[in-house]
Amino acid sequence: MPLKSEFLEVSVWRGEETGEFKTYQVPRNASQTVLDVVTFIQRELDPTLSYRFACRVGMCGSCAMTVNGKARWTCRTHVSKVAQDGVLKIAPLSNLPVIKDLAADMTVFFDKWAQAQGQFKGEKTRFDEFAQVRPDSAERQAADAGIECIGCGVCYASCDVVSWRPDYLGPAALNRAWTLVNDERDVAKVDRLRAVAGDAGCHACHSHFLCTERCPKALSPTAGIAGLKRMVARAAVKGAL
Asked: What is the DSSP string of 139-172?
């Protein structure tokens, strides 16, 4: 199929928290990704452009940016899918401070993982026998449904609740907590439920499903958060919290 135009009109955010969009003309190619476009601008048109990427094949998640108003992995987003009219508008991820240009500061994102007790805590040592987890158990399957998150931040940048109340833990941190409370090897379940039960925790979620809609790994943080709500309620009724 022939390309509609030989060039793309690409508006790119330049600056920090304050700045402006600058427009570049970029050659349009077949099978071109948004990351290809950003890379061309940095290498051929403006070497001062800052952005973040690593693997280029959808494994690391570090290339996530806002493309035409939606958070996306730029390495797996083809221009033909998002810029049929030949226009692209690229900005850093929303809900995060801007370091420079297209590079967002992920510190608060990962700090919230820690606040949600997102670290595995076991009781066995290397001298013990390996823990055995039945792959067909309900808990293991619940954990499997959310365990492929790679921390790209797309769900966090897409979440309306994070925009409204910056203290909200966010879908990625809560999804991580959900996988761990379903891990029978973990011994910090009660502490983790306490961590996600507060005003900024799972009950702040409005179930808008934007995190689920835009997750590049096809996960459903919304489902995991709903599971946490049920688990917290049961623990509260039993007096465990």
From this structure: HHHHHHTTTT-----HHHHH-HHHHH-TTS--HH
What class, spelled out in words, does domain 107-237 have in CATH?
mainly alpha
**Token match 């401070």: residue?**
97
Distance CA 8, CA 36 (A): 12
Q: Is the pLDDT of residue 6 over 70?
A: yes
Question: What is the C-alpha separation between 184 and 224, in angstroms, rounded?
Answer: 16
Q: Distance between CA atoms of 40 and 22, rounded to whole angstroms?
A: 15
Q: Could you write out the DSSP letters of every residue in the chain? A: ---S-SEEEEEEEEESSSEEEEEEEEE--TT-BHHHHHHHIIIII-TT-----S-SSSSS-TTEEEETTEEEESSS-BHHHH-TTSEEEEEPPTTS-EEETTEE--HHHHHHHHHTT-S------TTSPPP---TTSHHHHHHHTTTT-----HHHHH-HHHHH-TTS--HHHHHHHHHHHT-TT-S-HHHHHHHHSSTTSGGG-----HHHHH-TT---HHHHHHHHHHHHHHHHHTT--
pLDDT tens, position by position, 119-170: 999 998 889 998 888 999 999 999 999 999 999 999 999 999 999 999 999 9
Query: For the chain, what are the domain ranges?
Result: 7-104, 107-237
Q: What percent of the chain has pLDDT over 70?
A: 98
In this prediction the pTM is 0.93
> According to the model, what pLDDT value does residue 160 have?
96
Q: Which CATH number describes the domain made up of 7-104? A: 3.10.20.30
